[in-house]
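Hi, does anyone understand the following?
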Amino acid sequence: MIKSTAFSVIAIMLVSCGNENKNVVQKMMYPQTRKTDTVDTYFGTKVADPYRWLEDDKSTETADWVKAQNGITFDYLNKIPYRNKVKDRLTKIWNFERYSPLNKKGKYYFFYKNNGIQNQSVLYVKEGLEGEAKVLLDPNLLAEDGTISLGGAKVSKDGKHLAYTINKAGSDWSEIHLMDIATGKKMNDEIKWVKFSDIAWKGNGFYYSAYDAPTGKSELSSKNEFHKIYFHEIGKNQSQDVLVFEDKENGLRNFAANVTDDEQYLLIYGSESTSGTSLMIKDLNNPKSSFINIVNNFENNYAVVHNQKSTFYIHTDKNAPKYQLMQVDLNKPNQQNWKTIIKEGNDLLESVSVSFGKFVALYLKDVSSKMLVHQLDGKLDHEITLPGLCKVEGLSTDKDDSLMFFSYNTFTAPASIYKYSINNKKLKETFKPVIDFKTEDYETKQVFYTSKDGTKVPMFITHKKGIKLDGNNPCFLFGYGGFNSYYAPEFRIDRAVFLEQGGVYAVPGIRGGGEYGEEWHKAGIKCNKQNVFDDFIAAAEYLIKEKYTSSAKLAINGRSNGGLLIGAVMTQRPDICKVAIPTVGVLDMLRYHKFTIGWAWASDYGTSENKEEFDCLLKYSPLHNIKPAQYPATLVTTGDHDDRVVPAHSFKFIATLQEKQQGSNPTLVRIDVNAGHGAGKPTAKQIEEAADIWSFVFYNLGVDYK
């Protein structure tokens, strides 16, 4: 039961009446969260789970608890004197025009544009490079509050039809709709219960992936099982869609369909987790043909880049942790017959695209982009010189066109759009945003620090030019460390408001991520997961030792798997920082695999159903390592429609933290309503959340906000 009298924040002492930016010491009175005697036994070890009831996202009691927690959180945030100023400044910085790179399909070019603070970016189309741009699809018209987002859009090969997915309130569940491009009119086709799906056009229809409709259980938390691939023909009802592939024996696998550019071959990728794929190929020109098993295990990653009839080019980390490009003959598909086209090098080969009969290889060198052009036989043609530390995103090429487009990203300025010609080797900036932020006043450097076991780890540090290293700068340390992913140079609009206040923004490339390929990834998974936390702690210690900041001026943040990172670090080293922001985090490591797609993360985490992995998980699981201690000022953030990392993780974690917190630091949870894991969140909600996070950070770091 939640006590209705405990929803207020009481200010008990004003530190300085003369300075609105000095903290009011506040005694927190949290809602009384009901405890139960729920206990699980794992291999003889009893583990209490007193807040298990918060996993029920449909119960009235959980809804009341959410309301009570939000009440105390927003009561606290409302007392921060400059909260509205932070929001106003964020809104002003956010309000600039931005584009995506052009994407060619037939005679048309497609791109996304946001005028500034539109909740969702708008899809435009134009005929030819010099054609007039017209609105094709404006998702802002689908919901007044912007909570319906455009998940993806694919154009048919003949350029006549657009298939697009929409997501509601941030959920991973999608609906597919169709549009006639020439008229701009929406068609009657509608496909539901789509999830983790591509759209693969073939003639007068397309392939997609879906689950059976949930029956009697919460669609936001029940386990996703038995992924299937269907073919939809334009104009038909979903009930008439043809089941193309299913695996009746392995319910915990996902399948994605793709079609080669010549529309002759159907590709089906399978996965059991977030890493490792199987691959099957079927000749669609021969109705009697069977699938050819190219790879029937999940030990490595494979992606078809290009084909010339039955000759395929596949990007893979098989026998190459930093990836290579292989040539495969469908008539002799056994791996001993594969031929290396672009061999593995010192840098990570992120992806390969085709432009005008040449391969464009995108590399990652010390977490910064590098681009090389190769002949189809693999011979190096030339390098595309990129200016400075950057990340190339949205690379768009056409196998029959010499022009390609991409966005150029740095930590200090919003993304510019570049055009490059394979023929004349000319690189041209075609769009540079105009923003109310003095990007030229800031700089990024890269350092390499030593982790606990002696491993050298890269870190980007961004701050105002001429900063004094006196240990008194506010610092925001952001990390991820998982699933072979990484954070390279990128401009996050909300970070600008922190940099303006003299903040130091640091992003370490910790193990578990994909900064240096599969070996770097594997060094931070399962029972090696402690390396991830040690790398992050070492980053904090480096920043303190080198006097960029101090523990009293340090805030730490990560989202999703990065939320797990923050939860683990703050429970292992509550002294390392002043503020902790675990965002949509995986925090209950013993039960994460029981909800929605959580089972697919076992390749990184292991599960509590395995004795050795259980022992490792229990040692660092944030929820299970909260002991009575003085923890940092903590703001947990989540969304009530998050069906990727269900909000129960955050709910149980904050209830336990509020119970065990010693001292006066606040421990709060901000639960966004009609919001999910983050993708598609409307701009208005992004600004509101960022304003609250930065206000909380400034307030608890004692920043004199100006």
